[in-house]
Amino acid sequence: MEAISLAVIGGTGVYKLAQLDDVTSHTVETRYGTPSGPIRVGTLLGQRVAFLARHGEGHSLPPHKINYRANLAALQQIGAKRVLALNTVGGITEHFGPRVLACPDQLIDYTWGRISTLSEEPGSEVLHVDFGHPYTPLLRSKVLAAAKVTGVRLHDGGCYGATQGPRLETNAEIARMRRDGCDLVGMTGMPEAGLARELGLDYACLAIVANWAAGCGTGEEITMAEVLANVDAASAGLPELVGELARG
Ligand code: HPA
């Protein structure tokens, strides 16, 4: 098994890593089943980096159908110990407008009905992992440092609210999330973060704000075209940031 400096999971609008060279594709099976697609392993700015598109490379998997366990276990199987999760999100509070990049430090889970533990199968050991700090603090600090070195503007902190989807939220749901303390809303942050903790993987989230969440902006309809254009624009500096993070 080769050493992988960093694994990156791409979210909506991020189906490959720009500047990943000499790519080999790995079809991996895990005890939890099949991941969302092949893992692409390549060299990014001199570092060995693995990439997996969370929704599949053709965005064919809705958030509640993603096999989060298989995705993380597959990345671990090919040698990754650290995972940077890219999550496309809506912004709720003041500092989290469209095209902002943020590295949240907290989350609230509103999802339901997803397999959220490795202990799902009868007879498996029940795990009660500590999850007070859902994102690995050391990896978070390295993400922030990499952003600084590469000149990428990245908001430090924020609370990610994970919703069920695939529909977007109602204005009232977002108002409740704001009262709860959420700054960001996305559909894939959980159970991924909790499973990473159970697997013993270091895990941090880099949230890409694609739109104002329901009722937060001008009140105009949120379109997929807007979401994808904003993700594209906000992602320009990501290869350098990922390369720098992989180095450290
Ligand atoms: N809500 C939930 N998930 C999202 C959003 C949103 O507004 N935008 C991008 N992913």
From TrEMBL:
Q: What does this protein do?
A: Catalyzes the reversible phosphorylation of S-methyl-5'-thioinosine (MTI) to hypoxanthine and 5-methylthioribose-1-phosphate. Involved in the breakdown of S-methyl-5'-thioadenosine (MTA), a major by-product of polyamine biosynthesis. Catabolism of (MTA) occurs via deamination to MTI and phosphorolysis to hypoxanthine.
Tell whether Nuclease is among the UniProt keywords.
no
For this protein's source organism, the top of the classification is: Bacteria, Pseudomonadati, Pseudomonadota, Gammaproteobacteria, Lysobacterales
* Enzyme class, broadest EC rank: transferase
Fetch the InterPro entries from UniProt.
Answer: MTAP, Nucleoside_phosphorylase_d, Nucleoside_phosphorylase_sf, Purine_phosphorylase-2_CS
What positions does the entry give for phosphate binding?
A: 12, 54-55, 188
- Descriptive protein name: Probable S-methyl-5'-thioinosine phosphorylase
Query: Which residues does the record give as substrate binding sites?
Result: 187, 211-213
Pfam families assigned to the protein according to its UniProt record, in alphabetical order: PNP_UDP_1
Complex formation: Homotrimer.
Q: Give the matching PROSITE patterns.
A: PNP_MTAP_2 (PS01240)
Q: Which organism is it from?
A: Stenotrophomonas oahuensis
